[in-house]
Specification:
single chain; about 140 residues; mainly alpha; 6 helices; 2 strands; about 45% helix; about 5% strand
Length: about 140
């Protein structure tokens, strides 16, 4: 669901994340949504982690998208359902990618091309220590 193959590697197109986010928006709770999307016996905590990993990406990028497209998305809630309604497109993320072609390098996945930094990581490259021996231990 939502994946393509290119040269033997898996390439994610955002469809699975958009579907999970849309299901979470309309579900009575995240627990109910996680159970409906992942009925396998992985347990509720695992299903919730799986669901949150998918919807967090979408929830992080949609407010920026609504701000970048004021003419097309004026008054639109930053949700998959809101974007689908305003654009009249079932594949909301694919439609947004075409509208935001010039901004894809600045937007995080699943919509754009920039990798999201993990929590606590700097958005830039950060500081990498040089390799070398450990410093001498202090005398006790």
């Amino acid at each position: 669901m939502g994946e393509n193959l290119r040269d033997g590697e898996r390439v994610f197109d955002g469809g699975e994340k958009a579907q999970a986010a849309a299901a979470a928006e309309s579900a009575p709770s995240l627990e109910a949504c996680a159970h409906a999307l992942r009925p396998e016996p992985i347990g509720l905590p695992g299903a919730l982690r799986w669901l949150r990993r998918r919807i967090d990406y979408v929830r992080a990028v949609l407010p920026a998208v609504v701000a970048l497209l004021p003419q097309q998305l004026q008054g639109c809630a930053p949700t998959i359902a809101g974007v689908r309604r305003h654009l009249g497109a079932e594949q909301a993320l694919q439609r947004l990618r075409s509208l935001l072609a010039t901004h894809l390098g600045a937007l995080a996945t699943p919509l754009g091309l920039r990798h999201r930094a993990a929590r606590g990581e700097p958005r830039s490259g950060g500081f990498q220590q040089r390799m070398g021996p450990d410093p001498p231990p202090e005398a006790a």
